[in-house]
Amino acid sequence: PQGPAGSNGDPGKVVSDTEPTTRFKGLTWKYSGTTDLTASDGTVIKPNTEYYYNGTHWVINYFSVNNF
User: Fold this and answer.
1) Where are the domains of the chain?
2) CB-count exposure of residue 20 (10 Å: 0-12, 13-18, 19+)
3) Model confidence over 18-68: pLDDT tens digits?
4) Contact status, residue 53 vs residue 61, Cβ threshold 8 Å
5) How far is it between the farthest Cα atoms of the chain?
6) 49 Cβ partners below 8 Å, 6+ apart?
């Protein structure tokens, strides 16, 4: 619990109405905008939806009971 955060720590979640400029595998982004947005990789980002970056594309961060 003490000491500086490591380079492979939990990156947390970005909540914004613009695409994060720094992307890395595992980054989670909740789009807070009100209209569809086309991300730099061509993915259509929907309002009020959470995505994660898989290293190449934004993918909907989908949770279901089967995932737990």
Assistant:
1) 13-67
2) middle
3) 999 988 898 999 999 999 999 999 999 999 999 999 999 999 987 666 655
4) no
5) 42
6) 30, 31, 60
